[in-house]
Write a structure and sequence with these properties.
6 strands, alpha+beta, 3-stranded antiparallel β-sheet, 7 helices
Length: 224
């Protein structure tokens, strides 16, 4: 119990709360069992080494639960929160998206606005660092270059996934445009695609382009 208080990493959420204590070759070990019902994988850790490394636990969690689930879990505060909002969600519904759903009624909104250099450099702001590290001094804060690199990498991978989805889709694809003038007097057009995927309606934003001329049907077609 005393050692368990130190096991605060969210990665423990992917293993059963009850840890078995077993003897292995004359040495006492802690045995962690994967929380997925269909998996009986265990990770053994020797007590006499006082080893609290989670490398092997993370390796199996990535293979068994998937990279997205592990990534979302590591964004939570601790094992308890990760178990509640990620692991239990997957076990009950099979969907990681439940993690993002709101409990109250209302429309979920999000922004497509590109982050500016000032926004990515906030990770070096003393006030931001103090806020993020309060109660968790060892919390890792990436550098501005890492944030920028990861954002570009995520964008590239997402674009590839969307392109593959649309190219392999066997049903109809409906495209739409939405034109407006931004507060700084720039005329822009958003291009979206609408389709049915796995029995559910889906809409995706493909691009936002500037069309600095009359938004006639011909001009919008050229922009598309």
């Amino acid at each position: 119990a005393r050692l368990r208080k130190r096991w605060g990493s969210p990665i423990y959420a992917f293993y059963e709360p009850e840890v078995n204590i077993q003897m292995h070759k004359g040495r006492r070990t802690h045995v962690f069992t994967c929380a997925r019902p269909s998996c009986a994988h265990t990770v053994r850790r020797y007590v006499d080494k006082r080893d609290r490394s989670t490398g092997n636990m993370r390796k199996h969690a990535l293979a068994c639960w998937g990279e997205e689930a592990v990534t979302r879990a590591m964004e939570t505060a601790d094992e308890s929160e990760a178990r509640k909002v990620v692991v239990e969600s997957l076990l009950q519904t099979g969907r990681i998206s439940t993690y993002f759903e709101r409990k109250k009624k209302g429309t979920v909104t999000y922004s497509h606005m590109q982050h500016t250099r000032e926004e990515t450099s906030i990770v070096q702001d003393p006030g931001f660092l103090t806020l993020m590290k309060t109660g968790r001094p060892g919390y890792y804060i990436p550098s501005p270059s890492t944030v920028s690199r990861d954002a570009k990498l995520i964008f590239a991978r997402t674009r590839e996934r969307i392109a593959k989805l649309l190219q392999e889709h066997e049903g109809h694809l409906s495209f739409a445009t939405d034109a407006w003038t931004s507060p700084n007097h720039r005329a822009v057009v958003a291009i979206t695609v609408h389709l049915e995927h796995n029995g559910q309606p889906m809409r995706l934003l493909l691009d936002v382009v500037e069309v600095a001329k009359s938004h006639t049907g011909v001009n919008l077609a050229e922009a598309f």
